[in-house]
Each structure stands twice: as C-alpha cells, then as structure tokens.
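Co-fold these.
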Amino acid sequence: MASVPGSENGSNVIVKAEKVNKYFGSLHVLKDVSLTVRKNETVIVIGPSGSGKSTFLRCINHLEKINSGHIHVNGHLIGYLERNGKLVEDGERNIARQRAEIGIVFQRFNLFPHLTALENIIEAPVHVRKISIDAATADGERLLSRVGLSEKRDKYPSQLSGGQQQRVAIARALAMKPSLMLFDEPTSALDPEMIGEVLDVMKELAQEMTMIVVSHEMGFARAAANRVVFMDSGTIIEDTTPEQLFANPREERTKQFLSRILH
Amino acid sequence: MYHFDWEVFWKYLWPPSALDDPLIRTGVIVTIVVSIVAQLLGVIFGLFAALGKMSKFVPFRLIADAYIWYFRGTPLLVQMMLLFFGLGVTHIYDFPDIVFEGFKISGAVQAGTLALAINEGAYMAEIVRAGIEAIDPGQMEASKSLGMTFGLAMQRIILPQAAKVIIPPLGNEFNNMMKTTSLMVVISAAELFYAFEQINARIFKPFELFIAASLYYLAMTTVWSIIQARIEASLGERKGIEKAPGMLERVFGMGPRTSRGEPITGGH
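Predicted complex below.
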C-alpha cells in the first residue's frame, strides 16, 4: 500500500480508516477496510456494484454506522467515542459538528427543492455556522460563479438540468468550507452530455482539495486522481496510482473488472 | 299542516337581527375562535405524535401509539364529557373561568377546546406522518451531511416540504372541526349550536331555529372552502398537487387530488 502510517505524519493525514467492519444484518459489507488519505490527495474508489465502496464513503461522515474499527478525519474519531476500548455512538450535536467539516455530493444531487440555487448554498452556512446572510450570500455568489452558474442563482432545482443541479450541489457542499470532499457516484445519474461539465468542476477542485470519489469515470481518474482504490466484496483489493492500475493491474479480479468497464 | 314561522326564521338567520342576539353573537365568535385554536393545537399535538411515532426511542413510540389508539378509538363526545366532568369531579382540574383581555373564557369552552384539540391531534398525527414520509430520505441525508441536527433539518428542510402534502387534508380537517365544535353543547359551552338550543328552549321553534343554525355552519364551511382553494392553488404552483379543483367542484364536495389522481382526504 502506498499509504504512510498517520501517526508520524499526523498533520498531513486527513482521513485514516482502520480495520472498518460493517454488517447489514448478516451481510458483511465492509471487511477490515483500511485507508489513509493525505492532504490534497484525490482518491478514486472503483469496484463492482455491491462491493461496499459507497457504503464505505458514507461511513466516513457517519451517514452509515460501523460495527468495528476506527475512522479518523483530521485526527477526530468520527461518529463514536471510545470508552474502555468499546465504541459508543457520539451525541447528535458532536456528529453534526463533524459532518459540517466534511462535504458530500450525492448521486441524486439531493438539492432542497423548495429553495433556490443560492438559498440551497447559503442554508447551512447561515443556520449551522450562523454566518450573516450578507456574508453567506457573497460567498455563495462566488461559489456559483466558480461552478459557472451565476445566472441561475434564483432558479429552483426543478428549473435546472441534472448537470446544473449537481454543480449547485458541489457549491452547496463547498460553502461549508470542508477540509474533505466525498463524491458518491456524482455522475451516474446524469445524461452523458452533462457528465463533462460536472467532471470539469471536479478536476479543478482536485487541484486544491482532499477528495474521495466513488466513480467509474476512468478519464477523470487518469486526469485528476493521485490514487485509485479497487474494492470488491467489501475489501480493498488494490490501492495504487492510476497509471499503474490501468497499465498493469496486479490482481486478477482488478483485471477482470477493468476489462469489463473499459470494454 | 305545520305552519312555518318565517318571522322567527328570518329573525335568527339574517345577520343584522340575529347577531343582535347576544347568544348568537357570542356563539359565532366562540365557534370560529375555538375551531381555529383547537385546529392549531391539534396540528401541534399531531406533529409531536408523528415525530414520536417515527422516533428510534421506544418509549416515545409507545406513548404516541397509545395516544393515537385511544383518541381515535373512542368517541369525541365521551372524551369531552370525561375531560370536563371527570377532571372536575375528581378535582384534578376544575376548569375555572379565565378572563383574557377582557373576555371571559368559561371552563366549558376551555375543556371543549382542549378535547377537540387532543382528539384532532390523534388524526393529524397520521396526516403529518404521511407528509413527512412523502419526502425523499435523501433530503434528510443531505441536511445531516451539511451539519444540521435532526431538529434543524426537520424545521428548515423536511417540514416546509411536507407542509405542501399536509395542507390539503389539513384544510378538510378544519372544515370538519368547525362542524364538530357543535358537540360542545353537551358541556354547555356557549358556542353557536348552544345559542340556538337556548333560544329554542325559550320559544320552541326547533324546525325554524335548527335550519337557521345549519345555514350558519354552511356559510362558515363554504367561506373556508373558498379560502382553502386559494391556498392550495398558490401551493400547487411549485410542487406536487397538480391542479387545484375549481370552486364549484370544491364546494359541492369533490376534494383535491394528488398527482396520481387519487383524492386527498382527511382521516375521519
């Protein structure tokens, strides 16, 4: 594995997942998953459906509970307190505070349909961070122009295309000034002609953000990723650079998967 | 053949003369105010019961279930008598008269309003819950991922959207509420029907008086139907409810429909 143990390099490590296990009922969906992501890295997670990649991503901001293991983001244990070696779920307010530092972009955008593009973006800064509406609006307008949607500020999500909605969703997550961005198959629900506009925003973002992206966009992986992680049946099979993975995958399962998605 | 007494009928129907009678004047005011207050309280009780029913915390769920079970499973009339006379005789609460801003609010009106509200809450609980459950779970996830607590997400994101689903059946509930206030006559609360009963006890013209009384209720529910249609039309512009039905359709009893063409109805 390319990762460096977090302790020596503490300030540099953003995400450190250690031996994460998760069950859905009797189904073991994550098996001892460990992953370290350092500042400004962009890590792409690929794998067949049901491999646990989205579940793992959702554990990082505690949208899913874990059964054992630890996930640290910025040195803070996510979602749990450790008492006598046992994990006890943390209080709601602490979890909310941790989530505010982690942006996530969903496959189905999940914009708030009763709010305009700008209102979607300033909702959490104003009501969670308690920033003044004026300051949040100025910030929101900057973010909208950054994702190329300044002229859509007063449109409702239903008046926007899928690609535009996803770009607003990215701006909404960025408005909280997160130190980590998670993307859960951000382009899978989009029509093909809209995928490019979202990936362009993400490529630019990858220059300066720490990102974990669950996606099958191999072009994006080649252009923007520092590492590609291949997951199958709840375990990380390979964790390497995009060049290495596409040119010379080590594991048989990786080869099979790549040959299927690259036809 | 029965001789219909038009003079009495008009005297107690036509507002300028009817509202001159202090009983009817008070009755109209009490009925309208009690309807609004009981409905508002009912929505609040219903909201808490709905949240209780959806809670992960088992005791909350049990309390909410028991509340809904009891108050939907027993007659409102009995609940009202129990609350007013039952609490009175045990001296748990005597419902003393309250003077508020110069208006005397009798104990019977208080007890009646409370009974109506508690009963309504049990019905509103299901309506509110259906409204909340109609919202995509992705909305709660997105709210939480932005650092919102459950309460803030409910208040800012989920309930404003659920309101659009809740408001059409809520309007129907209010229509029912205005009529149901007449049950308060059994605890002698000075509402509209009580007024007509009192006048009837004096002059014994039940046919004329009760027709007049029914027309008062009809006027109130009709005015409300018109207001309701306006509210729904303004809501329907942006979401879900495809098209508010026309006024005539509404007044003569065809309710609003969901986007799938199913009627939206209240719980009763």
